[in-house]
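Could you join me in thinking about how sequence relates to backbone shape in a protein? We need material for that, and I hope you will provide a protein of your own picking. Once you have written the record down, we can walk along the chain together:

…
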Amino acid sequence: MCGICGIIGDTADKEKILGEMMKAIEHRGPDGSESYISKEAALGFQRLSIIDLDTGMQPMFNEDGSKALVFNGEIYNYWILREMLIQKGHTFRSSSDSEVLLHGYEEFGPDLLLKLRGMFSFAIWDEEKNQFFAARDFFGIKPLYYAVIGGVLVFASEIKSILKYPGYERQLNEDALDQYLSFQYSVLPETFFKGIYQLLPGHYLTYRKHILQVVRYFKPSLKPDGHGSSKKVQQSVRDIMEHSVRRHMVSDVEVGSFLSGGVDSGLIAAISGCLKTFTVGFSGEGDLYDETGNAKEAADTLHLENNCKYIEKEEFEEALPRVMYYLDEPSGDASAVALYFLSRRAAEEVKVVLSGEGSDEIFGGYNIYREPGMLSLINWLPKCVLKKLAKLAKRLPEHIKGRGYLMRAALPVNERYIGNAYIFREEEKRCLLKRNTIKKEAKVLEEIYDESEHLKDFEQMQSVDLSYWLPGDILKKADRMSMANSLELRVPFLDWDVFQLARRLPKRMKLKHFKTKYILRKAAADYLPRQVSSRKKLGFPVPIRNWIREEDWYRKIKEAFAGDIAGTYFHTEYLLKLLKDHKEGRADNSRKIWTVYAFLIWHRIFFEEPEEFKDCVQRQAVISFDRGTVIDYNSSIECTARG
């Protein structure tokens, strides 16, 4: 796992600029750095050593030195591809997966991408053809950003690296802010920074003679076919998960596992047998916000060591600027902060962890997926009746039970569902934003709903999450929070073969009797105790609802909402009313408040940059390369339990 960056085009001070870009992403690869510079290209690499510790350094070159590669990720089937390429006459100088990409691109061009099994973003500069090629993996596990600035292409694993390029002038993309307020994450190809784009999952780009082309090579579509008995499919799920986890265990360093006590992480931990598992929770906040007990129970059963950390409110708050810095763009998902602490705890002892991201999206694990079945109780009524009921419900106070149910029953799925988070509705954004031009969320998702209109409502919701929520929220925070701590995070559920099986599962094998991830839970029952395999999904709960009502947080947020920056973008009186109503218990506005507050913290870091925030961002745990010695600037309560 590494950080990559580069400049394509003839520009002055290329070596100095590249050095600054590399330094900005040093946390992604503290084990070494190297660069390649020619008249038309400069490639930078920060290494986190996982595989082929002695000879896997990059940039890496082909036999005649005409092509140079920088790569972030892991290719799990590289030995098979290596043998295939050797038979075709390619000569290898190392045993790394990186070199397979280089020779594979020489042999197959972009067709190589569908032969890969793993997570990746990589870039290749062809000196002879004066051509640049870059690609991102199927699901968006690993990131890649780019911008064309004055005829020069600049790319990097993280936006903060591109910001070091002197020709770029920072400007907020208010279209991104508009959509962020609905989705809680950056959903557009163009990022929060005007002119800087993300290379979307399943896409590659080429750049030659100032012509940029972006091509989609993979789309994670669902094709339920309904074939196979439940027992047969259950066995297939077991077999394919065992195979995937084994592939994800390939490493020259120790591998650990995150463990929440739920079915996803529990299944991975059970199959992998990783002796070290890691968990976080919030002490003193009740069982709803503390999964450490469940995790310890699972670890005891599996005879694994469980290392847990309890996050205190004060250190959570202190870490916020640092988390927003590493995220590059604002996120209204408070669990990113918890994931930062979880990754930091794991990084004290291992360099690689397995995690359960992707399971809910491909096996149907979110509780919201049960909604179409619940709405079917009344959606047999004529549309005109449903619309009248919705209008009546809208007039009711927000706390009245059933109000939201009646309002949503009147809407088709493409109007009521934009993903797991729906923070501010269109009418609310008009009250909140000073900007007049507001783009409907449905317009952003129009293509994905058109492509999936032949599917059931539940499967259309899954399709939205696979294309947007998974890469935009789940995988982004997983990558940034783990790499902020120089930790490689691997996701066995997002293996190609696992997805090919899951995409063909009919609804009855994902949702049955209102139970989510039905077939996965059945398969997991062979490895886990019943209370773990059947446990209801909690997500990654963070007690911000409670904390915002406490006087210290309330005052700080109120001050931010009444400030000049908030007043630049928002109608502050609307913000302050949301905060007051939440404080006094008239409504639960915690997610709305947090989404705006996170944006304001992010804005201060990237557009105002006061010295106190610079110091706060730069101060973090210093971890030795052997993961043994840790200097921690925050107080913490930690425990270790061995089953």
In short: The radius of gyration is 24 Å. The mean pLDDT is 89. Residues 544-608 form one domain.
